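I am still getting used to backbone structure tokens and would like to learn alongside you. To get us started, please write out a protein record for me. Start from the sequence, derive the backbone structure tokens from it, and show both lines together. Once you have written the record down, we can walk along the chain together:
***
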Amino acid sequence: MVREALTRDRLLEMEPDEAAALFIARRAEGLTESEGGLLAEWLAADRAHEAAFGRAGRAWGAFEDCGDDEIIAAMRERAVAPSPRRWPSWRRAAAAAAALILLASTFLLVPGLFEPPGGRQAPASAVRYATARGQVSAIALPDGSRMTLDSDSEAAGRFGAGEREVALARGRAYFDVRPGRSTKFEVTAAGRRVVALGTGFEVDLAGNAIKVTLVHGAVTVGPLDRTVPPVTLRPGQQFVERGGVRTIVTVERAADVAGWRGGLIAFDDEPLGEAVAEINRYSRDQLVIRDPAVAAMRISGQFRAGEAERFARTLAEVHPVRVVRRGSELEIVPTG
């Protein structure tokens, strides 16, 4: 099926609730790469957009649990189906989606109104989230929680009856979990399960390691198969697993770990090789270190994400290194 393209100009003509409804309806069928970018821009442009998207997501989540009700199924089909190519097809699609979500909101407020026979609940479908290199996206999740997805990252979320789960496939994400829900919020990554309730924490798949840093609240970290009891982190603690070796360290300023959400990257006496890998997440220009002695140098400081060359030039001012450019590659080499 071919559906009409969504553009920035068309989004500007819609009310926030109308645009949010259309995004939610299209997301159910799978957003295109262009639509995913537009959604990220639209959410970042105004907090009212985030609020509208959250309302629409929660309503749609309730709608997904309606089972086989024929009326709701028919309305859903209408909301996501492509329209004949006449003048206001995109507005009709948005209006249909908004009407559907309004109905879904009704049975959010009236429990059991559309409850499936025998209380049977439909499984939630996975929703994919992804960012390109240099892109950081703040995402309102259907349960009211927030996920900030770092550059070049990918995750999939499932939100339905009794289910709040995000699977991080690559990259890094920060989660502000909405409290007051009976269902625990779970993040799975690299064979680990992180369980939280009303918490702020980061999950980072860096190199061959997984890092879980707790900023506030509480989380447990354990294997997916639950073969061993999980460990519980306290605010300021970081769980690190690399090569099968697990450690728990204390981070003095845990909030700074997630400084990348504001475009800043902080290092505290870290090996230059690890710092370069972090900087490379955000820039088309890629830093390269081939000399082990250079990679072992220690670095501290706060730097702007996406400015690889500026980072390298600053480095050359305080360390015995220089920068050699070869196309988009910036090699850091020892002086002399």
In short: The chain has three domains: 8-119, 127-255, 263-334.
